[in-house]
Design goal:
With about 250 residues, the protein is of the alpha+beta class. Helix content is about 25%, strand content about 40%. A five-stranded antiparallel sheet has the order 1-3-9-10-2. It has a three-stranded antiparallel sheet with strand order 4-8-7. The chain has a three-stranded antiparallel sheet with strand order 11-12-13, with no helix packed on it. A hairpin with a 5-residue loop joins β12 and β13 (about 225-235). The longest helix is centred in the N-terminal third of the chain and has 22 residues, at about 15-35.
C-alpha cells in the first residue's frame, strides 16, 4: 500500500486512528509507571481557605450547524469528569494530571458521543467535549503561580511551587461549568490573562484565528505590574462556519 509521505498513520482511516490512540494510551501508562511522579488522589469536601482563581463558561452551544444532541452529550461527559476531580487536593511534591485523574472515557462509565477533532475534522466520539473542562482548568491555573509541567492543548499536568496545598473544584449547574482554584492561604501575587492583536485571516482555503496570549503578574499588596509573559502565539484553524466571523475582525 502506498501512502502520502506527509500523511500520518492515524489519519488513514478510523481504524488506524483507534490503533494509534491505543498505542498512545499504552505509552502514557508506561510513562506513569516508570516516571516516578506522585499523582494527586485525595479528595476533600471542605474548601481550602483562599480563592486563587475562578472561571465559568457555558456548557451547551446553540446555533446554525451545531448538533444539539452532541452538545447535550458534551454536558453529560463534562459532568462525569468533574465528579472525579472536584475537591482534589494537590500537596507539595504531587502532580495533578487530567489524564491520570479522569482516566479513559468509556461507555461503561456513562460517557456519550460528543464532538472530537480527528484529522482537523469535527466528528462524534465517546467522551467528546472534555477539552472544555481541560481548557477551563488551564485558565484558572494560569492565574496562579502553579507550574504547568505538560500541556497538549486539551490537558494539563501541574504542581504547586509555593510549598502549600492547593485544591481544584469543578462542578456543573444550570448548563454552566464552574471551576475554582483554592489554596491554604493567599498567594503573594495575582495574575491576569490578556489577549492582544486578535483577528482572523484566510490562508488558502482555510481560516485562522490569530492572537497573542499574555499572562500579567501583579503584586497583591500594591497592585503593581511586575511582569508580562507571552504564553501562546495563537494560530488556530477555525472549525466553525467562517460566515460567522465578524467582518471587522478580518485582516
Amino acid at each position: 500500500m502506498l501512502l502520502n509521505k506527509n500523511k500520518n498513520f492515524c489519519d488513514i482511516s478510523p481504524t488506524c486512528y483507534k490503533i494509534s490512540m491505543q498505542k498512545e494510551i499504552m505509552k502514557r501508562k508506561l510513562k506513569d509507571v516508570v516516571g516516578g511522579e506522585v499523582f494527586s488522589k485525595n479528595i476533600q469536601n471542605e474548601k481550602l481557605e483562599s480563592l486563587a482563581a475562578e472561571h465559568s463558561s457555558g456548557l451547551i452551544k446553540r446555533g446554525p450547524g451545531i448538533d444539539p444532541v452532541l452538545q447535550e452529550n458534551k454536558a453529560v461527559n463534562i459532568n462525569i469528569a468533574c465528579k472525579s476531580i472536584n475537591g482534589l487536593i494537590i500537596h507539595p511534591g504531587e502532580t495533578f494530571s487530567f489524564w491520570h485523574t479522569v482516566g479513559n472515557t468509556t461507555k461503561k462509565k456513562g460517557y456519550k458521543d460528543g464532538r472530537v477533532i480527528i484529522a482537523n475534522k469535527l466528528m462524534p466520539g465517546i467522551g467528546g467535549g472534555l477539552c472544555n473542562l481541560a481548557n477551563t482548568l488551564n485558565l484558572i491555573v494560569l492565574e496562579s503561580p502553579l507550574d504547568i509541567t505538560e500541556i497538549h492543548y486539551h490537558s494539563d499536568a501541574l504542581a504547586p511551587d509555593e510549598g502549600k496545598d492547593v485544591q481544584l473544584l469543578v462542578w456543573c449547574s444550570d448548563e454552566k461549568l464552574y471551576a475554582e482554584l483554592r489554596s491554604e492561604r493567599a498567594f503573594p501575587y495575582t495574575y491576569k490573562i490578556v489577549e492582544e492583536d486578535h483577528h482572523f485571516s484566510k490562508e488558502g482555503e482555510k481560516w485562522y484565528r490569530i492572537s497573542k496570549i499574555y499572562r500579567e503578574k501583579y503584586d497583591r499588596a500594591t497592585g503593581k505590574l511586575l511582569g508580562k509573559d507571552l504564553l501562546r502565539n495563537n494560530h488556530s484553524q477555525v472549525m466553525f462556519d467562517p460566515e460567522l466571523i465578524p467582518k471587522e475582525q478580518i485582516r
